[in-house]
UniProtKB/TrEMBL annotation:
Coiled-coil residue spans: none
Pfam families documented for this protein: DUF748
BP-aspect Gene Ontology terms: regulation of protein targeting to membrane
Family matches, as InterPro entries: AsmA-related, DUF748
Cellular component, GO annotation: plasma membrane
Protein name: Uncharacterized protein
Keywords annotated in UniProt: Membrane, Transmembrane, Transmembrane helix
Transmembrane intervals: 7-30
Lineage, uppermost ranks: Bacteria, Pseudomonadati, Campylobacterota, Epsilonproteobacteria, Campylobacterales
Length: 962
C-alpha cells in the first residue's frame, strides 16, 4: 500500500510539475529562447508579448510577435498564433495531427531598396559556414501529418520599392485564408478558400482543393477590378508609355494541376475582361480600348493546346506615329541588356518542343486607326474598322483562318509633301478559308467590295474616282509563285480626270474576269483567259476635242504570257461593241457597231511587235461630216500638221512591226456629209478583202484587194501594192467603181456647181502610182445618161456652163468619157491631189465657153485650129478641097451633136478686097453644109454682121435652144 501510495504521489507530482511547467515554465523558456535565437541570427529585434501553452489540451498560443528593424519599423508582425495539437490521435494513428492553426493579424512590410535588394532577404546576419561534401544522401520518409484546419485571418502585406525615382507601394489587405485537411495522412484532399484586397479597388478570391502526394490542385481564381497601372508602376523603367488609372482587368479562372504522372496544368476562364484602357506617350494618346471581352479561354499544358472563344474587342483606337526615333508602338517596351541573349536561348530550347495548338473561335473587333508619318509629312486615318472571324487554328507555323471579314467605313490618306490625297468609303473584305504554312499562303475564296475610292494628285492635277467596286478571287496561292484560279472585277463607275493633259476617262458597268493567273519565281506572268464584258467607256481629250464613247464592250484575251520582257498572246477577240467618236470642234462623228475583231498570236518584245493574223468581220462604220465653217486653208494646215506629226512618230520607230494578213469580211461603211445644202449619205456594204502582211522594214510591201457594194447597185474594187512604212516610196493603187448612181451626189453638185442631178450613172477607174514621192495618176471618169435638175443656190457654187459642157462632152450614146491625169511631187507642201483634180475639172468645163472647139475637138481627136475657122485666100470665095477639109470635120461634129449649130459672119479684108466677096464666101459655106453634107438648116446660122479684118471666116459653136 505504501508503495502504491508513493507511486501515486510521484505521478501526481510529475503531473503537477508537467502542468506547472506547461503553463508557466515552457512559455517562459520558449519566449526567451525564441527571442534570443532570432536576435542572434537576424539583424532585427524580436518582440513577443506572450506565449501561452495548455499542457492538458495541447493548445499553443502566441501573442503580438514582431520583428523591428534599425529604423524602429515593424518588418514582420503577428497578432495571434493559435495551434491546437491532437497528440493522442496522432499516436493512435501514427501520424502528426493538428486540429487547428490560426494565424491572425499577420503583417509583412516588404521593402525593395534602390539596388534591388529586399529587406526580408537581408534579415539574416552574415555567418561563416563550412561546406560539407557528402558522397551519399539517404532518402528518409517523413512522418505523415494532417492539419484539419488552417485559418489565416486579417493578414496585410505592404510592399514598397525604391528602385524607381518615384516610390512604389502595393498593399495586400484583409487577407483571409482557410484550408481544411491539409497534410499527407491518408493522402487527404484539402479544400481552401483565399480572399484578399489588392490596394483599394481589387478583390481577389481563390477557392479549390489541394492534395500533397502526389501534388494535385484545382479551383477557381476570381479577380475583380484589377487596376493595371498599379502593377505596371512597379518598374516604370520597363515601359515607355503611361497608362490611365481607370484601366482594369476582371478575371474568373479555373485551374487544375496534376503531378500524378507528369506535371499537367489546365486552365480555363469564365471571365476575362480588360476595360477602359488608355495609353499615352509624350503626352499624346496612342491607344485606347473600351473593352476586351473573352468569354472562354483554356490552357492545356499536357496536350499543349490554347483555346479562345467569343473574343470581342470594342472601341479600340490606335494612333501610330513615325518620327526620328522610329514607330511609337515599337518603343513601348524599353529594350533590356540581356534581352537578345534570352531570345536566342529560348529559340534553342524551343527547337525540341512539340508544337502548340492554338484555336480561336468567333473573334469580333471594332476599331479606329490613325497613322502620322512626321518624317514624310503624311497621315492615314481609318474609321470604324470591324473585323471578325469564325475560327483560327494555329499549329506550329501552320495557320487556318475561316470566315474572316473586315469592314471599314472611311479611309483617308494625305501626303502633304507630294500633294497626294486618297480616300475611300465602306470597304468590305471577306475570306472563306485562309491556309498559312510557313511562308505559303492559300486563300480559297475572297471578296472585296468598296463603295467609293478617290485618288487626287495635285502636282499632276490627276483625279481618279471609283464607285461600287467589287472583286472576287478564287483559290489564291502565294509562295514562290502567286496564282489564282478565277478573278471577277466589277466596277460600276470609274472616272479619271487629267487636267494637265486635258483628258478624262470614265467607265460604267465594267466587268473583268481572269482565269488561271500565275506569277512564278522568275516574275513571269501567265493568264489562261481574261474577259472584259458589258463595259461602257467614255474618253474625252479637250486638246484634240475628241469625245469617244464605247458601249457593251466585250474583249477576250487568251493565253497571255509575260516572260523576260516578252509578251505573247494567243488570241484577242473584240466582239460587237458600239463605238461613237465625236470631234467636238469640227463635229465630225464616227460610229461603229457589230465589230468582230480577231487578232491571233501576238508577240511583243524589245525589237519586235507581231500579229500573225487579223480577222475583221461584220463591222458597221458610219462617218458623219457636220456643218462646218472650217476654211480650206485650215483643213490644209491641219493636214500638214498631221503629216509633220506622222513624220516625227515615224522617225521614233525602232521596233520591228509585222502584222500578218488582215482579212475583212462583210464590212459596211456609211458616209454622211451634213456640210451641204442637201445632206449627202451613201452606204458601201459587203466590203470583203485582204491586206497582206504589213511590215515596217525599209523595202517591205503590202498587197491589198477589197470588193464592195455601193448603195444598192454599184460595185467597188480596190487593188494595189503599197509600202506601209512610207507610201511616198511606193504606191500603186487602182480603184474601180461601176454603176454608181450620180443622183446621190446631188448634195455635192448643189454645193459646188449649184445644180441638182436628176439621173445618171458613174464609173471611175482611178490609178495612183507614187515612186520616190513622184505621183502619176490616171483618173478615168465615165458618166452615162447624165441629166441635170433644178438650180440650187449655194454660196460655194462655181458658175459653170454645165448644160453646154455636157452637150459637148456626151457622145451619141449620151456617155461622157473623161481622162484627168495628175502628176507632181507629193513632198511639195503646195501639192494636193484633190485640188489638182478639181482644177482640171473646172478648166474642162470652163472650156465650154472659152474654147468650145478645143473641148469638142478633143472628143473627135481634132485640134482647135482645124475646126475654128474656114481659111480663104485673098479675092477667093469658092469651096476648094482646102475648105472642104475643115467643113467636113464640122459636118461630122454637127451630125453627132444635133443640139449644136455652127454660126459664122461674112468676112473680108477691106484693104485688099471688096465687101461683095465676103457675102459670097459665107453663102458658099452655108450651101456646102446644107446641100452637100445634109446638115439641118437649124444647125447652120449665117449672121448679118460683116467682119472687115480678115479673108478667113471664123466659126462659132452655139447650143440650139429647145
Amino acid at each position: 500500500m505504501k508503495a502504491l501510495k508513493i507511486i501515486s504521489y510521484l505521478i501526481l507530482s510529475l503531473l503537477f510539475l508537467y502542468i506547472l511547467s506547461g503553463f508557466f515554465l515552457l512559455p517562459y523558456i520558449a519566449k526567451k529562447e525564441i527571442v534570443k535565437n532570432l536576435d542572434e541570427i537576424l539583424i532585427t529585434k524580436t518582440k513577443i508579448e506572450k506565449i501561452y501553452f495548455n499542457p492538458l489540451t495541447l493548445n499553443l498560443e502566441l501573442k503580438d510577435f514582431s520583428l523591428i528593424d534599425e529604423k524602429d519599423q515593424e518588418v514582420v508582425g503577428l497578432k495571434n498564433l493559435f495551434i491546437d495539437f491532437r497528440a493522442l490521435k496522432s499516436i493512435e494513428k501514427k501520424h502528426f495531427h493538428i486540429k487547428n492553426i490560426l494565424l491572425e493579424g499577420i503583417y509583412l512590410n516588404i521593402i525593395e531598396e534602390e539596388k534591388g535588394v529586399f529587406n526580408l532577404a537581408s534579415l539574416l546576419k552574415p555567418t561563416k559556414t563550412k561546406e560539407e561534401e557528402t558522397n551519399q544522401k539517404e532518402k528518409t520518409k517523413l512522418i505523415d501529418f494532417l492539419v484539419s484546419k488552417i485559418v489565416l485571418k486579417d493578414t496585410n502585406i505592404d510592399f514598397t520599392s525604391f528602385t524607381d525615382k518615384k516610390k512604389y507601394n502595393l498593399h495586400l489587405k484583409d487577407i483571409n485564408y482557410t484550408i481544411y485537411d491539409f497534410g499527407t495522412f491518408k493522402n487527404s484532399l484539402s479544400s481552401n478558400n483565399l480572399q484578399f484586397k489588392l490596394n483599394e479597388n481589387t478583390d481577389v478570391k481563390i477557392s479549390g482543393g489541394l492534395k500533397i502526394e502526389p501534388f494535385l490542385a484545382y479551383g477557381k481564381i476570381t479577380i475583380s477590378n484589377l487596376k493595371i497601372k498599379e502593377l505596371l508602376d512597379f518598374d516604370k523603367s520597363l515601359f515607355n508609355f503611361e497608362l490611365n488609372p481607370e484601366a482594369n482587368i476582371n478575371l474568373a479562372l479555373n485551374y487544375n494541376i496534376d503531378t500524378t504522372n507528369d506535371f499537367n496544368l489546365f486552365l480555363n476562364s469564365e471571365i476575362f475582361e480588360i476595360n477602359d484602357l488608355k495609353l499615352n506617350q509624350n503626352q499624346k494618346e496612342i491607344a485606347r480600348l473600351n473593352k476586351l471581352d473573352l468569354k472562354y479561354f483554356s490552357f492545356d499544358l499536357n496536350n499543349q493546346e490554347l483555346n479562345f472563344k467569343d473574343l470581342t474587342i470594342n472601341d479600340l483606337y490606335a494612333n501610330m506615329i513615325l518620327d526620328k526615333s522610329g514607330v511609337n508602338f515599337a518603343n513601348l517596351l524599353k529594350e533590356q541588356k540581356d534581352e537578345k541573349e534570352i531570345k536566342s536561348s529560348n529559340q534553342k530550347n524551343n527547337l525540341n518542343n512539340k508544337p502548340w495548338k492554338i484555336n480561336l473561335e468567333n473573334i469580333n473587333l471594332n476599331a479606329n486607326f490613325d497613322f502620322h508619318d512626321i518624317l514624310n509629312n503624311s497621315k492615314l486615318n481609318i474609321k470604324d474598322i470591324k473585323a471578325k472571324t469564325s475560327n483560327i487554328n494555329i499549329v506550329d507555323d501552320k495557320i487556318n483562318i475561316k470566315g474572316a471579314n473586315l469592314v471599314t467605313l472611311n479611309t483617308k490618306y494625305i501626303d502633304n509633301n507630294n500633294k497626294l490625297n486618297i480616300s475611300s468609303s465602306k470597304t468590305d473584305l471577306t475570306h472563306d478559308d485562309i491556309f498559312i504554312n510557313g511562308s505559303k499562303v492559300e486563300i480559297l475564296n475572297s471578296a472585296l467590295k468598296k463603295d467609293k475610292i478617290v485618288f487626287e494628285d495635285e502636282k499632276l492635277k490627276l483625279k481618279i474616282t471609283t464607285n461600287n467596286l467589287g472583286l472576287e478571287l478564287s483559290k489564291l496561292y502565294i509562295f514562290d509563285e502567286i496564282s489564282f484560279d478565277l478573278s471577277n472585277l466589277k466596277l460600276n463607275n470609274f472616272i479619271l480626270e487629267d487636267k494637265n493633259n486635258n483628258i478624262s476617262l470614265s467607265s460604267k458597268n465594267s466587268n473583268l474576269k481572269v482565269n488561271n493567273f500565275l506569277l512564278d519565281k522568275q516574275n513571269n506572268i501567265s493568264i489562261n483567259k481574261s474577259e472584259l464584258y458589258d463595259t461602257n467607256v467614255n474618253f474625252f481629250d479637250s486638246n484634240s476635242s475628241f469625245d469617244i464613247n464605247t458601249k457593251k464592250t466585250n474583249l477576250k484575251i487568251s493565253n497571255f504570257n509575260l516572260k523576260k520582257d516578252v509578251i505573247t498572246i494567243g488570241q484577242i477577240l473584240l466582239k460587237e461593241p458600239k463605238i461613237d467618236i465625236l470631234n467636238m470642234e469640227s463635229k465630225l462623228k464616227i460610229e461603229a457597231k457589230d465589230i468582230n475583231l480577231d487578232l491571233n498570236k501576238l508577240v511583243s518584245k524589245e525589237n519586235l511587235f507581231k500579229i500573225e493574223k487579223t480577222n475583221l468581220n461584220n463591222p458597221h462604220i458610219s462617218i458623219i461630216l457636220p456643218k462646218s465653217i472650217q476654211t480650206k486653208d485650215e483643213i490644209e494646215n491641219s493636214d500638214l500638221t498631221k503629216q509633220e506629226a506622222d513624220k516625227k512618230v515615224e522617225n521614233k520607230k525602232t521596233k520591228r512591226v509585222n502584222f500578218g494578213p488582215i482579212n475583212i469580211k462583210n464590212m459596211t461603211l456609211d458616209f454622211e456629209d451634213k456640210n451641204l445644202p442637201i445632206p449627202f449619205k451613201t452606204i458601201i456594204s459587203k466590203l470583203t478583202g485582204e491586206v497582206s502582211a504589213v511590215k515596217n522594214r525599209a523595202n517591205s510591201t503590202s498587197n491589198l484587194e477589197i470588193n464592195g457594194v455601193v448603195d444598192n447597185y454599184g460595185v467597188a474594187k480596190i487593188t494595189g501594192i503599197v509600202n506601209p512604212n512610207n507610201i511616198k516610196l511606193l504606191t500603186d493603187v487602182n480603184m474601180k467603181f461601176k454603176n454608181i448612181s450620180i443622183k446621190n451626189f446631188t448634195p455635192y453638185t448643189a454645193k459646188f456647181v449649184g445644180r441638182a442631178i436628176k439621173d445618171g450613172k458613174l464609173e471611175l477607174d482611178l490609178n495612183y502610182n507614187i515612186s520616190e514621192s513622184n505621183l502619176k495618176a490616171k483618173n478615168s471618169i465615165i458618166i452615162k445618161k447624165l441629166e441635170l435638175g433644178e438650180k440650187i443656190e449655194s454660196k460655194d457654187a462655181v458658175s459653170l456652163p454645165l448644160d453646154l459642157a455636157i452637150t459637148l462632152l456626151e457622145d451619141s450614146s449620151n456617155t461622157i468619157d473623161l481622162n484627168l491625169p495628175v502628176s507632181g511631187n507629193v513632198d511639195d507642201p503646195e501639192f494636193s491631189i484633190a485640188a489638182i483634180v478639181w482644177k482640171a475639172f473646172v478648166n474642162l468645163i470652163t472650156k465650154a465657153i472659152t474654147a468650145p472647139f478645143s473641148l469638142i475637138g478633143s472628143l473627135f481627136n481634132f485640134s482647135e485650129d482645124e475646126i475654128n475657122s474656114v481659111d480663104f485666100n485673098l479675092k477667093e470665095s469658092e469651096i476648094t478641097p482646102i475648105q472642104k477639109e475643115t467643113l467636113d470635120k464640122i459636118a461630122l461634129i454637127l451630125n453627132s451633136k444635133k443640139e449644136f449649130a455652127i454660126s459664122f459672119s461674112p468676112s473680108f479684108d477691106e484693104k485688099n478686097e471688096k465687101e461683095k466677096i465676103a457675102n459670097q464666101r459665107a453663102l458658099n459655106i452655108q450651101k456646102y453644109l446644107i446641100e452637100e453634107k445634109s446638115i439641118d438648116k437649124k444647125q447652120v446660122i449665117l449672121e448679118k454682121e460683116i467682119k472687115k479684118t480678115s479673108s478667113n471666116i471664123d466659126l462659132n459653136l452655139k447650143e440650139i435652144k429647145k
